[in-house]
Amino acid sequence: MTTSVRPPIVRRGLEALRAYRDVGHEAAIDLSDNTCRFGVPPAAENVLRAFTTGRFAPYPSAANDALRTALGSVLGLDPEGIVTGCGSDDVLDAALRAFGEPGQRIAFPAPTFVMLGHFATANGLVPVPVPPRADGAIDLDALLATGADHVYLCSPNNPTGETLPAGALERVLEATTGLVILDEAYIEFAGGSEVARAATHGRLLVARTLSKAHALAGLRVGYGIATPTMVNAIERARGPYRVSALSEAIAIAVVTRDAEWVREHVAQANAMRDRFTSALRSLGFAPRSSAANFVLLPTRDALALERALREDGIAVRVFRELPGVGDALRITVAPWDVLARVLAVLERTVRRERRP
Length: 356
Ligand SMILES: *Cc1c(COP(=O)(O)O)cnc(C)c1O
Description:
Layout: E1 29-30, H1 42-50, H2 65-75, E2 82-85, H3 87-99, E3 105-109, H4 114-122, E4 126-130, H5 140-145, E5 150-154, H6 168-175, E6 180-183, H7 187-190, H8 195-201, E7 204-209, E8 222-225, H9 228-238, H10 245-257, H11 259-282, E9 294-298, H12 302-311, E10 314-315, E11 317-322, E12 326-332, H13 336-353
Parallel strand pairs: 1-10, 3-4, 3-5, 5-6, 6-7
Antiparallel strand pairs: 2-8, 7-8, 9-12, 11-12
Helix pairs in contact: 1-10, 2-10, 3-4, 3-9, 11-13, 12-13
The site of pyridoxal-5'-phosphate has 14 residues, from α3.
């Protein structure tokens, strides 16, 4: 069917963006998105079995007061200083809309979480990526020299896995006047959360998620910690009902009853990450030292290695020309039998590729 109707004009800035698509979901083993490969927390199973369809017809909680109370008691924080969202993506998006005037700039050390630039642009902000110094460290001087209105930091950082150097957050908070976001999506693997500072600072938002250490990415539950005043503004930008009734019920059970399971998962993932990192070094690779549940592997053979892994049913994330890194693979940590398979494919492929 042909039509002469012209579609409405897409808002300025949006035409440069591409809709996000799954990378590795069709693979037998998906190591592309840093989600949990170590099972499901037991409280999630229990809640799912007890959940009744009678809860499908009514709306869920508008602002997830019960989940905020549960998170508040686990974190030792005021629930009024906690904002939930459909994943922490939703919290980041709403915060940019709440505090970012269209045309303002948001600076961040590059490379970092790709969705941040996307949400910034979608909300009319200008993303300002700041490449690392020659020694690979984040360039705080250059970041502050941008004079950007807002700043985004991610620690441990996706995709490098590195944590912020000591004192970096303080320097950014002192030198800026706008919103400072600290993304702690992987903080459970590293420790050293800044939620207590965010609860009182007044310009700092810490974004966290149940998608990684808590193994609930499919349920889409994230949250942010800030002052109650900031939380109220983010809620206005976000809108109500962002977490489904089933997701909220499971999230509450997991954060209150499965702390031990999460600790165990984190310990296993960290042990596998360190073993995998050493094994990669033994093969002659130069992986980044990661404090998260994934490893960034800079390699000029990234495309060939990704293809070889995919032929073996394993999906990983390929990055081309990352600032200060070059081409690289980002590989989610998994149980050792899976990582051993990855190592075998990498070793075989590199030997073939590098043959004179
Ligand atoms: C995975 C991830 C998130 C988002 O997770 P949600 O599933 O939307 O909660 C946020 N930030 C970073 C850096 C991530 O890697």
